[in-house]
């Protein structure tokens, strides 16, 4: 990710923070706009053209989306395309992230991170589902409908919207990667980060709370815990936060001991 894109993401996030009236329909419109821009190279190229002044790019947004979307959605899209992005693909990713953040804002009390995590586990445990959602040959709208069927009554509207939207435009990304990244974006929007903790046996509520408090102190932000039971861990825990891995598992210590003995 280039420095221009980093700054552009910060700018679009700030615009969302200043917006009012952001509900689930706004998030839905932003996802639809991101798909439209991603599917049309001429449109994405025009909106990401850093050589053009912001005003002409804003006019493109107004001409293409002004009549179809609500004013707050158009305003957020305009703010996004007015930023300078490192590439057109980065801008499409940025529009998608804006939509994910809007969904998180729309349902602040919903446990969206936990619901997204549970969906990644469902996909990981069901190769046929992963193939159906990840196949390049499948119809995009059918994939979205499949997600809606799976999650209706089992998750919040925000989580359903995020997953069903992402699987319709994977752009060479795996389903689990898409949803895991969305989980991190939602957590960031809510001022926290997410840790995935693997252990040989389920952790008690008290253990989860202690671990969350310890990690929150270490990282200087609230840390939400997602747990995975993995018998291969044997004992102890393995913690992953973004690219950081804290491995205190017995299996890893045994592997290190074997390596030392093998000399």
Would you kindly provide a brief summary of this structure?
The chain is α+β, with helices and mostly antiparallel strands and 263 residues long. The protein has helices spanning 3-18, 24-39, 41-47, 54-65, 71-81, 88-106, 112-124, 127-134, 140-151, 157-166, 175-189, 205-219, 250-262; strands at 192-199, 222-229, 237-241, 244-247. It has a 4-stranded mixed sheet, sandwiched between helices.
Q: SS-based structural class?
A: alpha+beta
- Number of helices in the DSSP assignment: 13
Q: What is the C-alpha radius of gyration, as a whole number of Å?
A: 20 Å
% residues in beta strands: 5-15%
Q: What share of the residues lie within helices?
A: 55-70%
How many beta-strand elements? 4
Lateral arrangement of strands in the main beta sheet:
2-1-3-4
Give the overall average pLDDT: 92
C-alpha end-to-end distance = 40 Å
Q: Write the H/E string, N to C.
A: HHHHHHHHHHHEHEEEH
What overall geometry do the principal axes of the alpha carbons give?
Answer: elongated
Quaternary: single chain
**Uncertain parts:** none
């Amino acid at each position: 990710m280039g420095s221009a894109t980093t700054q552009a993401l910060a700018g679009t996030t700030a615009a969302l923070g200043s917006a009012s009236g952001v509900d689930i329909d706004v998030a839905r419109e932003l996802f639809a706009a991101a798909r439209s821009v991603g599917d049309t190279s001429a449109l994405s190229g025009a909106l990401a053209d850093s050589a053009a002044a912001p005003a002409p790019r804003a006019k493109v947004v107004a001409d293409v989306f002004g009549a179809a979307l609500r004013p707050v959605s158009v305003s957020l899209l305009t703010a996004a395309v007015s930023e300078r992005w490192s590439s057109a693909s980065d801008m499409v990713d940025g529009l998608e992230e804006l939509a994910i953040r809007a969904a998180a804002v729309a349902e602040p009390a919903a446990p969206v991170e936990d619901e997204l995590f549970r969906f990644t586990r469902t996909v990981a445990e069901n190769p046929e589902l992963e193939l159906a959602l990840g196949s390049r040959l499948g119809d995009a709208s059918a994939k979205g409908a499949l997600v809606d069927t799976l999650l209706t009554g089992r998750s919040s509207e925000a989580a359903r919207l995020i997953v069903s939207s992402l699987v319709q435009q994977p752009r060479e990304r795996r389903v689990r990667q898409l949803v895991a990244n969305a989980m991190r974006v939602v957590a960031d929007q809510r001022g926290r980060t997410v840790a995935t903790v693997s252990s040989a046996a389920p952790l008690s509520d008290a253990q989860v709370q202690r671990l969350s408090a310890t990690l929150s102190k270490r990282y200087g932000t609230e840390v939400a815990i997602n747990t995975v039971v993995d018998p291969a861990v044997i004992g102890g825990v393995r913690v992953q936060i973004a690219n950081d891995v804290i491995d205190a598992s017995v299996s890893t210590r045994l592997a290190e001991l074997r390596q030392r003995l093998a000399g």
